[in-house]
């Protein structure tokens, strides 16, 4: 397929401006290697991994591809220093940081020759990432699955605002699963798209088949941003979601919500396949597709539709 060249593809050494999100319980080495080998940027999600498990996934990914891949590091999790030491030791070329202050680790990572991308939910945070020395920012809109910004700014509004606020290359995220959606984001000034939800329903994703099947059955309106008193997260409706909603409606404190969340809810839902008691993190765009496919097929379909949209003239007839 026709390759593409801009600041992001050159920075990351990829053929297509398609970045796979580093999702917990989903983005293991198989998915990362498959996306990387297909021309995009594959990402290992370190948020659900112990340091030694992360090392194992990095090594298996390196054995499965000769192309660049990244590791996603949620900065709010404990053990971040050990994970960074492993990333350095294993010579991972790219790190995507999220859920925290980029100032904490960006200078160190950059000093080791590692490219750093940071996920933001507002222009203010994008400027902070630029000041911290990040190579690019990933602007994630309200539509995205999993942990989200409190601002509730949609991708359509966020992307041009961030592009105006910083000189860094901007990667769009939130509500992207098709080539036409990627094209729309790039028309707004983004230079690539980060895609999560669509890759949840890939054959190589490490989440449970029950979760994949639930995702492809999702309809419009079946996800909602919850747990705003803790860390906002977009969830699919299920028994656990209803418990959270009822608690929030009666004015539960952050401490009460934390007790309800407990430990291992995300693992229970997404990795173990408990569709009622587990936390099912997914984006709004899950309503737009209905099949589980190989990652390469997903990348190819997105890029072919992107090119078709780019080459399609506007219909100006009355």
Describe how the helices and strands are arranged.
Elements: H1 7-12, E1 18-20, H2 29-37, E2 43-45, H3 51-64, E3 70-74, H4 80-89, E4 94-98, H5 106-111, E5 115-120, H6 123-132, E6 136-140, E7 146-147, H7 155-165, E8 170-173, H8 179-187, E9 192-195, H9 197-200, H10 209-217, E10 223-226, E11 233-236, H11 239-249, H12 254-261, H13 265-271, H14 295-311
Parallel strand pairs: 1-9, 2-3, 3-4, 4-5, 5-6, 6-8, 8-9
Antiparallel strand pairs: 7-11, 10-11
Helix pairs in contact: 2-3, 3-4, 6-7, 8-14, 11-12
Short descriptors:
alpha/beta; TIM Barrel; 2 domains
Question: Describe it for me?
Answer:
The chain folds into two domains: 7-207 and 285-310, TIM Barrel (Alpha-Beta Barrel), CATH 3.20.20.70; 219-284, no CATH class. Helices cover 41% and strands 14% of the residues. The chain has helices spanning 7-12, 29-37, 51-64, 80-89, 106-111, 123-132, 155-165, 179-187, 197-200, 209-217, 239-249, 254-261, 265-271, 295-311; strands at residues 18-20, 43-45, 70-74, 94-98, 115-120, 136-140, 146-147, 170-173, 192-195, 223-226, 233-236. Strands 1-9-8-6-5-4-3-2 form an eight-stranded parallel sheet. A three-stranded antiparallel sheet has the order 7-11-10, covered by helices on one side. Strand 8 (170-173), helix 8 and strand 9 (192-195) form a beta-alpha-beta unit. The chain is globular, with a radius of gyration of 18 Å. The chain starts with 6 loop residues before the first helix and ends in a 7-residue tail after the last helix. The mean pLDDT is 93.
